[in-house]
Write a structure and sequence with these properties.
With about 210 residues, the chain is mainly β. It contains one helix and 13 strands. Helices cover about 5% and strands about 40% of the residues. A hairpin with a 2-residue loop joins strand 1 and strand 2. The two termini are about 15 Å apart.
Length: about 210
């Protein structure tokens, strides 16, 4: 059975005119820019070099004795405003940023998952398998992820991706982690030929019961 860990903090860092500015927390309605690069409107409201990198942090702290068999990161894409560039958004696992600061713009990347959202991505839930990295980080108190523009556009064009904030209880990002606790016993009997649900969670197919 999956255990659910909700994001406990998030925010983004500004880069403009060659300098990194203070971080900003997401707003809870979800209409927040998380990734933006090389974009300005007709009135010049935004500088062409204006960028943002967004981060989310999760409480973890699993026991060293458990084995993570699956870990999936979920986040909700609110929308992608109309713009002219056709760039993707990359997802990375990063070092725990503790309290997000401007210096975390270049924080150490532990895993680059590549493009996780494209310029024509539909709104809705998006997921990424992070099993290997969560197993390696399972005893850490926190685990953190970052979203950034894949390739910086040139000129007055850009790409914006907006995802829901952790304050939004219905759409906050979460980790679904399935793990074993280091011991097991053999079950008696066999599963029925057709099983629709286990513990109230719908399953398309079931290959294993004991996780071994």
């Amino acid at each position: 059975m999956a255990n659910y860990y909700e994001s406990s903090d998030d925010g983004y860092i500004f880069y403009s005119g060659g300098s990194y500015s203070s971080t900003v927390d997401y707003d809870e309605v979800g209409s927040n820019y998380i990734i933006q690069a090389q974009w300005s409107d007709a009135l010049g409201t935004y500088a062409p070099e204006w960028q943002r990198r967004a981060c989310k942090r999760f409480i973890l702290g699993l026991s060293a004795s458990v084995t993570v068999s699956e870990a999936i990161l979920y986040w909700y894409l609110h929308d992608i405003p109309v713009n002219s560039a056709q760039k993707s958004c990359n997802l990375e696992q990063i070092n725990d940023y503790l309290t997000l600061a401007a210096a975390d713009w270049g924080i150490t990347v532990k895993k680059d998952y590549g493009a996780c959202m494209t310029y024509n991505q539909a709104a809705g839930w998006i997921s990424q398998d992070v099993t290997t990295e969560i197993e390696a980080s399972k005893t850490d108190a926190y685990v953190a992820f970052r979203w950034r523009i894949a390739t910086i556009p040139t000129g007055d064009t850009g790409q914006t991706f907006r995802i829901r904030a952790y304050e939004d209880t219905s759409y906050k990002a979460y980790l679904a982690i399935t793990y074993t606790t280091g011991w097991a016993h053999k079950r008696d009997g066999t599963a029925n030929a057709s099983i629709a649900k286990i513990d109230g969670t719908a399953k398309a197919s079931i290959a294993k019961i004991d996780g071994t």
